[in-house]
Specification:
With 287 residues, this protein is α/β, with parallel strands linked by helices. The protein has helices spanning 15-19, 26-43, 49-52, 55-64, 81-89, 124-137, 157-169, 190-199, 202-217, 221-231, 233-241, 246-249, 263-275, and strands at 71-74, 145-150, 173-178, 253-255, 282-286. It is globular and about 50 Å long. 38% of the residues are buried. It binds thiamine diphosphate (TPP). The site of thiamine diphosphate has 16 residues, from loops.
Amino acid sequence: MEEKKVRFLDKIDDPADLKRLSVKELPEVCKELRNFIIDAVSTNPGHFGASLGVVELTIALHYIYNAPYDQLIWDVGHQAYCHKILTGRREKFHTNRKYKGISGFPKISESEYDAFGVGHSSTSISAALGMAIASRIKKEEDRKIVAIIGDGAMTGGMAFEGLNNAGVENPDLLVILNDNNMAIDPNVGGINQYLLNISKSHTYNRFKKDVWEKLGRLDGFGRKARRFVQKNQHALKNLLLKQNNLFEAFNFRYFGPVDGHDVVYLTKVLRDLRNIPGEGFKKYSGS
Ligand SMILES: Cc1ncc(C[n+]2csc(CCOP(=O)(O)OP(=O)(O)O)c2C)c(N)n1
């Protein structure tokens, strides 16, 4: 069997080690992490596809955010293998889901990086909202809270309770919709159709990407114009999408879709989202 060379992953014991790498090196880390999971899960079975699907997203999140101070909340948690491996549990990963081994889901008592204990679906937005409000009360303005939720979990009622409450609470919160059109089985229902429709709206997505990138390159006037676009996104989107955006209706700003397998681009998008100034910004990003 061909020996797989590992240049980076063996030296990543926490996200600080990941941050020492250059953005250009991240695609290689993604390959190594994906191989690591495939090898581990082929001898010790566990949730396979869900974690393989978020390799790039997890690496980009840990590269840009400062966990455990920033809190990453995985919905269901079956997709958190990459997160576990990057946060000090690589060497224990062979004990995943075994008696006295590490848990197959984020578990608060297992690691300070596991911000919320999960297993049940559709809880992440409410949990993240609670944490964002707590952070606001404690005046921790630099602390970021991110919920990562799949399109399957997004169909659950509790996810909508979270959106509904966030709409009036106005927290500094990023919700990442990891839309792979798949749950345990292919996803079904009205929300699924809706998500397919918005992710296919090329007119809007193309327009936004072009405008955003061009304005970002300019200084002075460009920055002002970018702020103007930012402020008026809601109206602009409705105009271009020719339909109301469900998430915007809940008072979220919707950015997306974003290619969730392009780790370099993801770091750029997350850095932009992280740096959007001011309290009260709520962001919803499809990937
Ligand atoms: C309350 C509850 N109901 C059902 C489940 C079973 N369940 C496990 S994963 C999952 C859906 C996962 O799909 P998605 O959110 O799209 O994530 P993906 O696997 O695509 O990453 C469900 C419904 C659960 N964990 N909790």
